[in-house]
Amino acid sequence: MTAAPFNDRARVDAYDKVRGVTQYAADIQFPRMLYAMTVPSRVAKGRMTAIVTDAAMQVPGVVRILTPADFPPPPEPTGEDGPPPPPPTLEMEIAYRGQPIALVLAETLEAAVQGAEAIRQRFADAPFSSVIDSEGSKREPVEDWVAGNAEQAMAGAVTTIEASYESPTQHHNPIELLTTTAVWADGRLTIYECSQGVNVTKGSVAAALRLDPAIVDVKSAYIGGGFGQKGLAQRQTALVAQAAILTGRPVKLVSPRGQIFHVATYRPNSRHKVQIGVDVNGKMIAANYHAEHEQSRTGFFSPAEYHESPIRMYGIENYRGTAANIRIDRQAPGYMRAPHPQASCFAFESAVDELAHKLGRDPVAFRIENDTQIDHKTGNPLSSRFLNECLIEGARRFGWERRSAMPGSMKADDGTQIGWGVAAGCYPSMMPPAIATLRINANGSTRFATSGHEMGQGIRTAIAAILVEGLDISTDKLEVVIGDTTAAPQHMTAGSWGTAGAIPATAKAVERMRAAVAELLEGRQIAGNLHQQLASVRRPFLQVEVSEVGPGQNADAIAALRQGGFVVAGPEYPDFTTMSYIAHFVEVRIEPRTRRIRMPRVVSIADCGRVISPRTAESQIRGGVVWAFSAALREATEIDPRFGGYLNNDLADYVVAVNADIGEIDVGFVDKPDLLANSVGLKGLGEVAMVGASAAIANAVFHATGKRLRELPIRIEHLL
Ligand code: MOS
C-alpha cells in the first residue's frame, strides 16, 4: 500500500441509521416471543432464604419465573490460563445489592415488570462494605511496575512535587441498554445481543449452562455504544438463554438502566499518589506513583494498569509504580473507555502541570523537553512517537503563545475568568489476529466477513475505505459481516484494537484479490469494474481467504482465534513498544457569579499512526473530549453506604455534559504511518482520544483561578 492519506468518506451506515432502518439487538422480534424482567436483590450481602413467587404468578400474562433452582451450579474454575469464569447465573448467595435473583417471563413487557415487582425476597443479611473507606474493606497489593531505581534517583532530584488525586466512581451509560434475545430452535441456541465480544458471549453461556459451544451462535451486527461495558460476558445473557431453552420460546430482555448501574462494569473510585523529581537541567528523572481502587471481592480488573500510560509518557528512566485493590461488596468494576489512563493521566498530567508551574516553566515546552523514544519499562524503543508534533501543532492552532502564564491573569470584560490548560495522554496500541473472507460476485455484490464489532465507532466505514480504494467494486451492494460467530472467527473488540485487527487483514484480502483477478484474466485488460469483468469471463464469483497476526505472533494465534481465544499482541511487542499519543489544549470560562465552568474551545491533536477513516477518527476524538469534560466536571455515582446501592442510577440524576457546556472541538492528526506496528501503519485511537483531556481541563481551571483541584469531579462548590 502507499502511505498517502486516506480520503474523507461518509459513514457507510449513516443513511440507514438516520432513517431508523438499522436493526439493533433490541429491535429484533420473533413470533411467540416472551418478555423477560430481572428481579434485583434488595440487600447487599447475605443468603437468600426464600423467594416467594405466588403473587407474581397470579399477574395475568406471567408465564414462568426462573429462580436459582433452574440453573446448574457454577462450573469449576479452569485455572490461571483458562478463560475467565462466566458471570454467575442465579444464586442464593448475594454478593452485592442489585444482583439478579429471579427472571420473570411474560407475554408482554408490562406483565413481566408487574410480575417482577410482585416477587418477595427473604434474606439472612450479612454485614457489608460499600465504599473504599468502609470497615471490612480489604486492601490487596498487586504487582509493581518498575523502571530503573526511583528511590535512588529521587534522592538526587533538585526539585520534586508530591500530590494526591482522586477520581470518583463513574458509570457509563451508552444510549443502547444491555439487551439479549435468545432463540432455541432445532437444537441450536441463537443469541442476539449488543456485544463487543460475540465469541466471549458464546463461550460464557456455554460454560454457565453446560452446553457444547458448537450449538451456540451469537450475533451483534450493530451496537449503540460499547465503551467496554459490552466486552466481557454480560450478566443477563445466560439467564435469557436458559429461559429460551426451558420454555422453547424466543425470550427478550432489555435491562432497565437502573439495574444496569448495579450489574455492569463501571469506572471504580481510584486514588493516586504521585511524586516526580527533576534534575538540575529540568529533566524528569524519577517518579513514585501509588494507585489504588475499589474492587469487588472476586474481581480481576487490575489497578497495576494505572501505570501503563504514565510510565510511557516521558523519558523518566526511574519509575516505581505500586498499586492495590481495595475489596468491598459491590459488583466488579471494569472496562470503561480509557479504563485506567483516564484516571491515571488525570493524576499524572496534573502533577506534571504542578511541576512545570513550580519550576516556572511553560507546560508545553516542559513536556516537549521531556520527550523520549524509549519505553523505559522494557528498555525497547517505541515503534513511533509523535507527541512533540502533537504539542507543537496543537499550540499553534490554539494560539498558545498568547497565553499569559500567571494563574488568574486572564479575564473577560464581564469578569469571566479564562483558563488555558494543556495535557497529553497515551494509550497502548494492540493488535489481535484476524481471519477474513472476501467474495466478489459477478452480479454486482461483494461480501466481506471478518472479526470485529461495530459499536458506532465506524469499523465498517474503515473496512469499506480499504476495499473501495483497492478494488473497483460497486458500493451499493457491499456487505461487511462482522460481530457474527457464524461468519468468521471473532475476537473481542476492545482496547482500541478494532481497526488494528480488521484493517491489515482487509488490506491483505484486497492484495490477494488483485492477484487472483490478475491470474484469472491472465493479464488481459477487460472493460468495466470487477463485477463486470467476472461476468464477461462467466465466473460467478471470486473468493479469497486471508489471515493476519500481530508482530511476534504466529500460526498459534490463528489457531487460538479459531478456538475463540483471547490473543492480543502488544503494546509490548518482541522488539518494540507501540503507544498512541495525543495532546489536548483547553479553554475554560468560569462565570463570575455562579462559578459555572464551561469549555468554549478545545484543540486535540493525535498520533494514531495512519488515519484510515478521517471522519470517524475525528468523531472518536470529539466523543472522547466530551466524555473527558463530563468526567472532569460532572459525573460521579453516589453510593448509599447504608444499603450498598447507587442513588443516582438514571440519566436524570447521573449528570453528564450537555451541548451548552462545550463549544468547538478542533481535531487534528499527525497521520504518520507506524509500519512496525502493522502492514497498514495504523495505531489505536478510540481510547487515547479521551486520555489526558480531564487533566487539561483541571489545569485550565487552575490557570483561570489559581486553585489546584485534585479531586474529580470539579464542581461549582469547589470554586466558591
Ligand atoms: Mo474498551 S474500555 O477496552 O472497550
Question: How would you sum up this structure in a few lines?
Answer:
This protein is α+β, with helices and mostly antiparallel strands and about 725 residues long. It has 16 helices and 26 strands. The strands form 6 sheets. Strands 3-5-1-14-11-12-13 form a 7-stranded mixed sheet, sandwiched between helices. Strands 7, 8, 9, 16, 17 and 18 form a 6-stranded mixed sheet that branches. The protein has a 4-stranded mixed sheet with strand order 19-24-25-26, sandwiched between helices.
Write the layout of secondary structure elements.
Layout: H1 14-18, E1 34-40, E2 46-52, H2 54-58, E3 62-66, E4 93-94, E5 100-106, H3 109-117, E6 120-125, E7 138-141, E8 145-147, H4 150-155, E9 159-167, E10 170-171, E11 179-185, E12 188-193, H5 198-209, E13 216-219, H6 237-247, E14 251-254, H7 257-263, E15 266-267, E16 270-278, E17 284-295, E18 318-327, H8 341-359, H9 363-369, H10 387-398, E19 417-428, E20 434-441, E21 446-449, H11 459-470, E22 478-481, H12 498-521, H13 530-536, E23 541-548, H14 555-562, E24 579-590, E25 597-607, H15 614-633, E26 662-669, H16 693-705
Domain Aldehyde oxidase/xanthine dehydrogenase a/b hammerhead: 19-127
Protein name: Xanthine dehydrogenase
Biased composition (Pro residues): 70-88
